[in-house]
Amino acid sequence: MRAIISRYAPAPTGYLHLGHVLNAIYVWGATNVLAEKGTPLTAERRILLRIEDHDVQRSRKIYEDAILEDLAWLGFTADSPPIRQSSRPHAYQRALENLRAKGLVYACSCSRREVRELRYAGTCRDRGLADAPGMSLRVRLDPTIERFVDLRCGPQEQRPAEQCGDLLVRDREGNWTYQFAAAVDDFDHGVTHVIRGEDLLESTGRQIALARLLGRTEPARFLHHGLLMKSATQKISKSDGDTGVRELRARGWTPENVIGLAAAQAGLIPFPRAIRSAEVSSIMSIEERPA
Fold first, then answer.
1. pTM of the full predicted structure?
2. pLDDT tens for residues 99-155?
């Protein structure tokens, strides 16, 4: 039996807010809907909980503890104990050596200030610099066209080498980057469906390309949902302390009303009403599109 495996992957750099609640609604709701729509070969489903603490300078245990407490209070229960990226350096190093053996990894001395544009120009690609403290590492990306069908946004076509240039996989402080750690984790843990906010849609092609370089023959399916916005151009952010779950709890809100508020603000329901975590699949409409 082939399981549908998704993941809920918060970063412990702040407290949960309504945007994270919306992502939980989609992860649990869409995963259940996809499993229910599946044939007997895809009837089982698992939701993993991944703590994305790859940025050790910004991650805090107080935030991780609060995330776990708030998730339990909301009623969103994962099918795995927390998987912490900080406990997986061996996995990322092994993946790096896999790429290095293929001649795809090189050291880079460029700082963020020197890389002024979104696309890295390949300044250090052929300089032959040694991997040393204070150096970052990049992976060569050949020009490819990555085509995939997003379960919400439809057919997509991306050119990672043109979008971002050679991919940063380890920064100058020695942290594994989000793009690299997420691709390695999803491959290692057999994640079949990645359900996340549409602000990450543009990074999907590079993660598919990177996973293929790591040896993944069948890419994950993706669903990118809408975001909760506080203005026409600015999404809710944990760094701004926006609509925090802990603040709503302190004001006497119930888990069901918090879930209902997030669902209503996202347009999943016409107006706020109490929704239990076990009911979120009932407000979800997902069409399994051909890959």
1. 0.91
2. 999 999 999 999 888 787 778 999 999 999 999 999 999 999 999 999 999 999 999
Determine the pLDDT at residue 136: 97
Task: Establish if 289 belongs to a structural domain.
Answer: no
Most confident range, picked from 19-33, 42-56, 226-240: 19-33
Evaluate whether 213 touches 104 at the Cβ level (below 8 Å): yes
Q: Which of 16, 8, 11, 7 is nearest to 69 (CA)?
A: 16
Would you give the DSSP letter of residue 147? E
Full domain range(s) for residue 143: 4-283
Q: Is 149 helix (H, G, I), strand (E, B) or coil?
A: strand
Strand order in the sheet with 136-139: 105-108, 136-139, 167-170
What is the C-alpha to C-alpha distance for residues 122 and 120, in angstroms, rounded to an integer? 6
Token pair, residue 143, equals 């020009």
Tell me if 290 is assigned to some domain. no
Collapsing DSSP states into helix, strand and coil, what is residue 111?
Answer: coil
Structure tokens at 110: 């460029």
| pLDDT exceeds 90 at position 182 | yes
Dihedral, CA of residue 203, residue 209, residue 211 and residue 217, to nearest 10: 130
pLDDT tens digit sequence for 127-139: 999 999 999 999 9
- DSSP assignment letter at 106: E
Structural domain total, the chain = 1
Q: Please report, for the domain that includes residue 36, its CATH number.
A: 3.40.50.620
